[in-house]
Amino acid sequence: MLEEAAKPLLKPRVHRQVVKSLAMRILGNQLAPGSVMPPEPDLCLEFNISRSAVREAIKVLGSKGLVTTRPRIGTVVQPRENWNLLDPDLLGWSMELQPSAELVLSLIEARQVIEPAAARFAALRATAIDIAPLEEAFGRMSRFKVSQDFEAFNKADIEFHTALLRASGNIVFQQLSNTIGAALAYSFRLTISRAREPGASLSNHGEVIDRIRMRDSEGAYASMAHLLNIAIIDLGIGKAGSPSR
């Protein structure tokens, strides 16, 4: 009876583990783009699951752009440009592999477009209630810098940037907040060992809040752009916009 009761609880965990295991093989290039995945019977034996469970896992991988199913061929790994690399699961699993400098740079370049605009909108639209999470995150960053707890500092930093997107009042930017948070966590893995000091940009975060409070939209834009330039310097980007050697 206990075993039967436990099965429904184990199934989601097992299913997620199968999806993750196959995704990690693709992300780590063990299953290269264009290659055909092992047939269903082999995957059933390897993971000790049913064919329907294998098909469900393949369906999840397909929804993330990793694979496609072709008649008489099987499940084929998609080209990298088809992967949904901003999917929070894929970003999280990628963090367990060697961080990609190319992906981190691309994420920061996207943030250079989105976050200064979000700061500008926040200066124009944000209420005191919208600004409060920014101030709370900044307060935690300040405390954790003093205590040298940079893991907690980075967590508060992520909360600062996601709060900024929500404060913009732009529903598309607000929807991006989880993705930006996952992207920041990914980029921190690469930048933390290269940064002069994880808390070195604290005053720049405070400046962004000050500009938003003062309703200085262009100043908020410029301050946020400057803050992201610091992140690129910490990543080691050369003047031409490519990783320095």
SSE order and pairing:
Elements: H1 2-27, H2 40-47, H3 51-63, E1 67-70, E2 74-77, H4 88-94, H5 101-125, H6 128-147, H7 150-167, H8 171-175, H9 177-191, H10 202-213, H11 217-235
Antiparallel strand pairs: 1-2
Characteristic terms for this protein:
2 strands; 245 residues; two-stranded antiparallel sheet; mainly alpha; single chain; disordered C terminus
Tell me what the structure shows.
The chain has about 240 residues and is mainly alpha-helical. About 70% of the residues lie in helices and about 5% in strands. It is built from eleven helices and two strands; from the N terminus they run H-H-H-E-E-H-H-H-H-H-H-H-H. It has a two-stranded antiparallel ribbon with strand order 1-2. Helix 5 (about 100-125) runs antiparallel to helix 11 (about 215-235), helix 6 (about 130-145) runs antiparallel to helix 7 (about 150-165) and helix 10 runs antiparallel to helix 11 (about 215-235). The chain is elongated, with a radius of gyration of 21 Å.
